Amino acid sequence: MTLRLCDRLADTHPQRIQFQCSPYHTNTALYPAINVLREVAGLTSQDSQTAQLEKLDVLTRESGIDNQETVSLIADLLSIPRDPRYPPLLMSAEKRKDMTLEALVQRLHRLADRSPVLFIVEDAHWLDPTTLDLLTRIIDRIGQMRVLLVITFRPDFKPVWADYSHVTFLTLSRLPRRQSAELVAALTGGKALPPEVQQAILAKTDGVPLYIEALTENVVESGLLTEGNDAYTLKGALKELPIPDNLQALLMERVDRLGSTKDIVQTGAAIGREFTYELLQATVEATDSQLRQALDLFVSSGLIFQEGEIPNATYHFKHALVQEAAYSTLPKKPRRLLHARIAEALESRFPERATLEPELLAYHYEQAGLAGPAVEYWFRAARRDAERSANIEALHHFTRALDVLKDLPQGLERDALELEILIARGAPLLSVKGYASDDMEHNYRRAKDLSQESSDPVHQFRAIWGLWVFHLVRGQLAEACGLAENLLALANREQNLDLLVEAQRNLGTTYFYLGRFDEAKAHLLTAKSLYDPNQHRSHAVRYGQDPGITSRIYLARTLWILGEVEQVEPLALEALGMARKLEHPFTRVFTLCFLSWIYSTVRDVNRTRDLTTEAIAVATQYSFELGLAWATTCQGWALAEQGREDGLGMLLHGLSAFRATGASINSTHTLALLAEIYLRHNRIDEGLGAIEDAQKFASTWGELFWQAELFRLKGELLLRQSDQSIPAAEQCLSDALKVAQNQHATMLELRAATSLARFWETRNKVDEATRILHPVCAKFHEGVENRELIEARTVLDQLRG
Description:
The chain is mainly alpha-helical. It is about 70% helix and about 5% strand. The protein has 40 helices and eight strands. The chain has a three-stranded parallel beta sheet with strand order 1-2-3. The chain has a three-stranded antiparallel beta sheet with strand order 6-8-7. The longest helix has 22 residues, at about 95-115. It is elongated and about 120 Å long. The N and C termini lie far apart (about 85 Å). About 45% of the residues are buried.
């Protein structure tokens, strides 16, 4: 279909770009784009570093790329060694990925500005996730470009752009009988087949173009037809014609008819849908003359197509089914030996492919049954993808490495390698699956078990850390606390600053949720003081977050609760500035969400809405499900506070999405926000239901940091319910005050005392109300002003009035 389109457009002379997707590279980030760029640049395996850089200069100059940072990105994408002329890429992997995709989009835009572009993507069902992201960006902006984008794919592929108004879908069904007959006529050069022969072909092939082509060619070449000037005649009975039962059998028969040279096409099939003359020559046991003759025979048979001239020729199987047919004729033992030869040839003769495509060598070694090198190359591919923030592809390659690892002999060496893979897998797993996924627990549970036999304290620490963050976000605080204390003990024993900064912020975070605010403050302050942005910048990639930013956020929340409110805003702004400078999207979303919790706590609706709007945009762009759920919840609260009818629905949707990730942490705070909305709308029973859920969660898992507020809100709701509920309401308000005092939670004590004082004022218990409210107001400096303190002082003035 695309060939016909190219023929139809030939007179208009469009620039042509073709992405050919490959079943061997469904998890190789940007594989089709890299191939196109290497071809356009004319890069070959024989190029020296100097030649590669010269060709890169030409490519970028002709593409209109003059930004040196972008040139560095293209060089990195093509695995061209760094040149001192180009700046180093001092940015996060996520930022580098984003900038690389943007550079590719801009290159297409510049090409289209010069002349129209025909952009063809073949076999999109084999797209890698990063190229899929690239195509989505292009389709989003294609209305501004002179580009016709044609994408072919199988029916089971479900593109994300299916609902775009400017995208048209065409289903290529089986050919109707008339068109099938026309195809047969084209294949016979217009010479008519005997009616019974044509009828047999049309009936057997049922409109499948490849089957029609292969069967027609098979019949014509069978020797059972006599060719005349205008038609063929049948020599014998129709039953003698070679008509295999199905397309696969027919293709296998055509391969078998290649005779003694069949092993060469089998080797090509083992290499892949596409193979080069050089690699085939390095793999087969044949002279150059024999190889050339065999390839000429294959090309003339129509089974493969040739591009370029030998020795730089590349060959493509006509269809994936042709390759599969050729490959399936290989017995198991020779197949394994063949894959081993291919892998060894790639490794020794084409080292640049081992660097560019380690997953290709991994595949061949795995098919050869050589587990050791297969694991090594799957691991290399995974680390390369993780460094490029191609997290989905990285996870696939990590999983393949772990699967093949099982075939290695048991022992300390295998355990050490498995531990290393599991630890490296943690960061992309966190980004894709979230903190609280079952995959996270399984990954780090196994890592922790293996680390007990390891002498590497960093591996031990990171294995325990993975379990700590899983239990923390799941809301299982008792387990999280024990693990956090183990982390600090390990870090203290090793006196490793990298481990200490993480351990201090981990334990401070855990103590915060447990309501142990004084201890949380001490550890978070220590983490903040230990943090060095130059030394610990890489922690965002290893642990998913930056410890300097995280410690500031939790310190801000802790200090607000402790009543040290004047430090909250500076810490929040500092954390936000650091997150923007870090250019690590996950940390940025985390920061925006957690700051929105702070601003929702202090009832700053506008700041909460602005922060969550940005968080939703970034979380959506990078598919951070947990961050999106957090941000949606807080934005729902902000909209509800502004009187928007859709606010409550958004909050509930965010809460549901949050729970769907397996996460539970901060649930008491979120449910309290929900209860506040219900209270404001006088939906008392629903508000009490939300508080009951929160209190049940707090008592089950120990999330006590918001316990005082839960009692206070329950009291406020009961006061609205009925006169019979007043004694229970008073008890709840008193319990809120007591909990806050025991936790030294001065701000929550102020809220509880204000609510209780207001209630007692209605009962003419003015002295008691003054006695509880005055001392807590006096804890704040005279110059401190915030909403809660202004409200409390107003109530106190009324009591004294």
